[in-house]
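pinging the channel bc i need a second pair of eyes. not urgent but kinda urgent?? the chain im working w is below, pasted from the shared doc
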Amino acid sequence: MADLRLLANVHWFFVKDYPQNIFKLYNVDCDTITEIFTTAEMDISHTLVSSIGYLDIILLFLILFAIFHFLNNRWIFESIGKFSGHKRNILILGPCDSGKTTLSIQIITGKFFATVTSMSPFSKDVKIGDNNFNLIDFPGHSRLFYKLDDYITKANYILLVIDCTKKDSAVAAANIAYKIVTTHDLNNVKLLCICNKNDQIISRPMESVRKDFLQHLNTLSLDNDSKCLFKEWCSISSKKGDIKVVLDFLKA
């Protein structure tokens, strides 16, 4: 109690109008605070003169300031730590029946499940390596693309899935690529083009799919700088679980 009385006297001397703020650092109830400050107001001059010197007051004030500074910075660093652990958004795009949902389920569960065509986005939290992600599987129907803008602006990663068994899938994927790159700034987004279904007999080589994709972007008169955003390519089988290259891309 004596220490609290001394603290009250010092703080009353420096900050008369806000004496109770200092006690937010201590677990002292309001009645105790009121009693201390009432007594302190009555004998402040006597206590300051007889108990401590001015140098002691300054030293104690500096200690209190250091405590406030430490707690404030601790809160800042804790906030930064929480921010650094925020979830990153993975957006999976591609034409219908390219295997987007199969890939999504493989990333989430590591298993294959038969899927059906969806008409609404699917979202799921997933941990890959040491990082937490929010994975969004967006439908391939062009009539739903008006909903795509909100997802693009929040995306940290975009996986563009192409069915390598169908030549028109590369063209459809190029149309999607053209739409997103001409309406959004993707320079800070990591983008991977994925040739899926390479386990099937009729699958086409990745270079052939890539050639058809880029050729259609040329037809759409997309500039070279924008085309360079689609430089990362890989070939997988989401059905067989051969997706290590995708996981490595997301971990990097």
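so The chain has two domains: 3-79, 88-251. and Residues 77 and 83 are 10 Å apart (CA to CA). — does that match what u expected or am i reading it wrong
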